[in-house]
Known about the structure:
Blueprint: H1 3-11, H2 13-44, H3 61-103, H4 106-142, H5 145-153, E1 159-161, H6 169-175, H7 190-206, H8 210-226, H9 236-247, E2 251-255, E3 262-266, H10 267-278, H11 289-305, H12 311-317, E4 327-331, E5 340-344, H13 350-359, H14 365-379
Amino acid sequence: MSLKKYIEDRYGSIIYQKTLGFKDMKTKRSKTKNQSIFLQKCISHHLIPKSLRLKCPVKTKVAKGMMKNFQFRLLISIKNDTRRKFFKLEKEICNLKEELMSILSNNDMKMIEEVSNKASEKMFISSKERLLKKFRILKEINSPRSCNNNQQRYIKDCVIDLTSETFPDNHKSLLNLGPKFVPTQKHIPFMDIISITESSALKLEYNKDNIAAQNLRKDILKTLKMCKPPKDNLSKSQRKALNEIKESNLISIYPFDKGSGFVRIKKEDAVQKIKDQIGEINTLAEDPTNSFAVKIKTTLSKLNKKNKFTKEEYEVIYPSDPIAPRMYGVIKAHKPEKKLSYENNSFNSWYTRLRLISIFSFNHPIFFKQMSNTLKKLSGFC
């Protein structure tokens, strides 16, 4: 049995028409809300929609200025009218809801509300997408293209080539985008999003907030069903160049030490530059990080039981991630010799300093100074 037949048989055709009116009011309210937001965005960005543009009869600067002011005032008044319309619909929906609640049973009223909410939600999403697309087009039309074109003509190459091999044009165009440029992903990482969502939902369930966990899962599922992969911000040749640079075993790309740019250098030359700066090293056959971490954990737990640390100090010292530190190089492009300096990605914690000493034995006074400072700090707790 359809909803129409059920309501008409039980309550009459007049009540069915009122339920349809309730549904239409809700859809109009969601549409009006989006229109109000769109008009407010147009006002804040000083954009005039196409429907409000009027042709100036007199081609003078004064007349054009007056016409612009009139269009802007007209836009503000239309925005205020849509807001009034929205609040008027809100009142009408509340009044009609009270009337239907006095006539319909609780189960029937819930059913009518679910149908109306689904229709209004569908209208809200479709109108939002349409108005967002309209807003982007308006923004692109009103953006100063001439200024952007002039800026693009005078962009300097941000790549220094220290190799004797040919530098392909597609590699050059990719690297000239700079180190701050982020290529878009071809595919949406569904599994990563789902795993993060599930871990957050489990935390909520652990805190006995099951409703919030269910709502989180529903919202993420709804978003993932409707989402589309972003447009590729690289051309085909640039995407090909990115894969070639990743797969290359001969040439490496290093960032500038100061400024934004890249240096193209052979891998052999880069390794030799780092070896020249580090000096003699003793390489270990096995990584002793895990065994070293176990010893530190047992020592720290004993000291913590004696209340030798505060909670913050214990969290800083405790080796929660027993991973050997990684060293990477950056080119000093501002110097004529183009030296390659090395940096460490996790060099500030006490545990990292100890791990570095355990893995490498550097003949450099800085490392011994850091080791002695660390040991002094640790000995102060004992």
